[in-house]
Specification:
Family: Belongs to the FliD family.
Distance between the termini: 37 Å
Number of strands: 25
Oligomer: single chain
Structural class: alpha+beta
Keywords: Bacterial flagellum, Cell projection, Cilium, Coiled coil, Flagellum, Secreted
Protein name: Flagellar hook-associated protein 2
Main location: secreted
Subunit structure: Homopentamer.
Shape: flat
Strand order of the largest sheet: 6-12-8-9-10-11-7
Length: 589
Amino acid sequence: MRLTGLSSGLDIDQMMKDLMRAERMPVNKLEKQKTELGWKMDGFREVNLKMRSLHSSMFDTIMRSSNMLKRSVVSSNQAVISATASSTVGNTSFTINKVSQMATSATARGASLGNEVNEKTKLSDVGQLSDSTNIQTGWVTGSMQRENIAVTDGVAKLQEKPTLADGANQLLINGKAYEIATEQGALSAGQVFIGDEGELTFYESDNIPARLQIEYIKEDESSTDRFTMSTVATTKNEQGDVTSSSFFFKDSDTIEAVTTKMRNATAGVNVFFDEHHKALVVTRKETGTYSSESNLKDIQFDGALFQTVFGLNDDNVQNGNNAKFTINGVETERRSNTFTVSGMTITLKDVSEQAITLGATTDVDAIYDTISSFVKEYNDLVDLMNGKLNERYYRDFEPLTDEERDAMSESEAKRWDEQAQSGMLRNDSLVQSSLNRVRQGLYQSVDSGTSITHLTQLGISTTRDYADGGKLVINEDQLRAAIEEDADAVFAFFNGTGGQPGMAQTMRSNLQQGMSSLSRKAGGSEGFHEQHQYAIGQQTKSIDDRIEAFERRLEQKESRYWRQFTAMERAMQMANQQSESLFNLLYNN
């Protein structure tokens, strides 16, 4: 029990606060040291992140041939032919003497479905379907079943052997139709046998993926839903191989739902409903012709819905055309209007009898922009590091304790924190050595195997203003001239050649050394994540341990003080009681 001044009349609570405030001064000092260490760690990590950003961007910019050897192509008639060039094309040119035919896609337009039909019309309301019997149009009555199963050790198994609806003799497996065989031993390509336990057996040459989505129409006497299956396929090569996609359609599906399913399928077709002709139009996504035989169509349809109802069949499929042109006097053709010749990607836009030249030259603007972006990012790093090294340190502004912060307004505390955090890395030897190491790499001579051995030969040098701290400045005319004269030599200077490191490789190595040093100091990267793994973390842990020990001692001292004050109060209470008793004996007789 604590007696707080009842006998003595003293403000013991305030006295205890004052005593413990004095006792806590060493703890406050340690907490301020810990706060400063946290600020220093944040500063080191900020520098480290900036160095890492430059380290990564150099690899993706000035060290990539696709950027530093970039070529641009000038066409004598951009409206007819345009082109781009890879970094390996060199300064070459081609002449397209003539474009006699553009590449087109295979197209099929179905039969008119009637004036009342639109995209929102249900299949059951299309005239040819509403009056037809199930068997004639491929409709079967039942319910749709879907299962997703995995193939384990070459075996795929349904939950149970399905009871298929009358007229349904096919499964859809990952969008491909498989005919259900009656005997396991006589399978052919595109057939599947279903065992008594639901296990699936495929033709041995069929390529079966690891996961299967299986759809089928199950017998269901309570269902009135009707389903039909149709297939669209595109020819892959002159041998007649196809990529096919099959679908189950429900009689309540709209024409819009049919076109959406077809567009999303692997067969590779675009589909839309033509409001003018009231018909489906199917176009192959790829241009060109794939069928060498006149009777083989680039788009093929199967199923009563596609063939009978929509009128999509071989009679109305128009095969695609290859692009035909003459290049450097040689007649040739391609399946696409965009093709590549010796590293130059050419796009035909229209037929033409006019000879059009395509000349690939060094893309000076793109290469200049790549180098100038590197210089800007380097200067940003120098700005940050010099700013940290030269930032003013306010010795009289220490981190605030909670009690000190509560005594200030929010704006006062913010201004105090700004000054207290300033200069944490002022003249820091680790940051300074990292900066010096990176800067030294810029001034070293590079054995690139070309005439360019120093950065100044590219018109890049340090500014004359000492206050800039070694930032780079570009002489634009000189850099552009160097790129125009020999872009390969410029790239070799940055990236090295013949096993000799270039300037960029040397700088990245120096950056890596600096980042590793900063990580060992402040953690946060390169595996230094736990507190005990980096220097500041170890210092922080040591301070935490000391604070914990101090806190235990403070608790003990506080308890001792309270015992002493309590004893004093009890003694004074006894004295007061004795005094009162003596007074009563002397004056109340």
